Amino acid sequence: MSTENKPSGVTRRDFLQKTTAAAVGSFFIVPRNVLGKGFIAPSDKLNIAGIGVGGKGFSDTNNAWNKGAENLVALCDVDWNQAKKNFELHPDAKKYKDFRRMFDEMGKDIDAVTVSTTDHMHAIIAMAAMQRGKHVYVQKPLTHDIYEARMLTEAARKYKVVTQMGNQGASNPAQNQMKEWFNKGLIGNVHEAHVWTNRPVWPQGIPVPTAKMPTPEGLDWDLWVGSAPWVDYNPAWHPFKWRGWWNFGTGALGDMGCHLIDPAFRTLGLGYPTELECSVGQVFIKDWDAEYIPEGCPPSARVQLKFPANKVNKSAVTLTWHDGGLRPFHPDLIPADEPLGEPDSSNGVLLIGEKGVMTCGTYGKAPKVYLKNGTKLEYKEGDFGNKYTPMPEFGHHVAWSDACKAGYQSKEHKALTSSFDYAGPLTETVIMGNLGIRSYNLRQARADGKGFDFPGRKKLLWDGTNMKITNFDEANQFVKRTYRGDWKLE
């Protein structure tokens, strides 16, 4: 339902007339896009609108707002109960439930937008913003499916806007250390990588809820369901628990993959994988009768992605993702008593090279190197600091705000660590794992009526350029989904 509705141009005469009239009455804020590239608004502040402003959206909007360094002019959320805290903090910001109405009424007053909704609405909202020339910050994962990620990557270039995905660990200076260690050849070329998480930490692998319950006051349920197939309201969907259902979320991979796969993807210069294979955990409620719940993500999964050698890492790489509390085992070079990744080993990254092993925790924290010659290196906080380091979440949001003011292709823009040129391909790789999981669960009734076959339980071959599985066409239904009603991505 996202339709292009670009604001009309503002002539210099119109601008001067409005400026004179406003100056007589009171102080005013002029959006930067009115003045054009190279001009600075009188307030020298970015006018930001937040869409999805409860939960993670609260920190996204307020980190970008940066204690008043920018203007927060509008807050939009389909659930005003979840948004209450943000509304109270910013009483002067205009409040909306429908982002389309917000753009229609305030499009000329908005320079940039943060998008922190459920995964299934990221692409439609971000596209609508970019088509109006708005810079965008979109929570991870960038999109719900692979096709959407490709479309947003191309749209950012087409509309010449500054973009950033919300995988804040990308701005952690510790990742610079990992890249420097690798580029020095300390661990040699990497042939094997492991990434793992304790997610899901929400109910997952459970039967589909069927009870219809009253919709809470303040929640527009039709807008919440948005582009997904219709379901009646149930607290099993909202808030937060939507992550475990394919209609709305992207499971453990979508929640943590853009954080945890990022250090390997960035350090090794990875691109599109060429093949994948997976296995998933089963749930038994009845003896000998595994539950079949294709609507929901499994309780645990392992996904193996293979990447070709490249100019950065001159070795093919096999990357294995583990979730649901599963993790890899200790390589020989890491002492038996030392944890992997996080102190409790709940999340982490492991890169195994010819000469040694490199590991880190979530967001690239606390990287270490273990070499075959017995040397151990540890990152010291501050070694690779920058002006944003003391800020919340490594200054990931503030760097984006500064780049928006500097403009498209400015040095500030080029310095961003997760603009869509990078975040798009990363997201495609992450979501590729979900294509494998959903393909693994496809089943067909046998002709004799005795049980089922599972044709997707094979190695899948991927043509990244054309976004296509080449040896199992049924898997391609998960590259691009069908939207409900007249919702569109165009």
Automatic annotation (TrEMBL):
Residues of the Gfo/Idh/MocA-like oxidoreductase bacterial type C-terminal domain: 212-268
Per the UniProt record, one Pfam family is: GFO_IDH_MocA_C2
The record, for PROSITE patterns, names:
TAT
- The record places domain Gfo/Idh/MocA-like oxidoreductase N-terminal at 47-166
- Source domain of life is Bacteria
* InterPro entries in the cross-refs: Gfo/Idh/MocA-like_OxRdtase_N, Gfo/Idh/MocA_oxidrdct_glycsds, Gfo/Idh/MocA_OxRdtase_bact_C, NAD(P)-bd_dom_sf, TAT_signal, TAT_signal_bac_arc
Q: What is this protein called?
A: Gfo/Idh/MocA family oxidoreductase
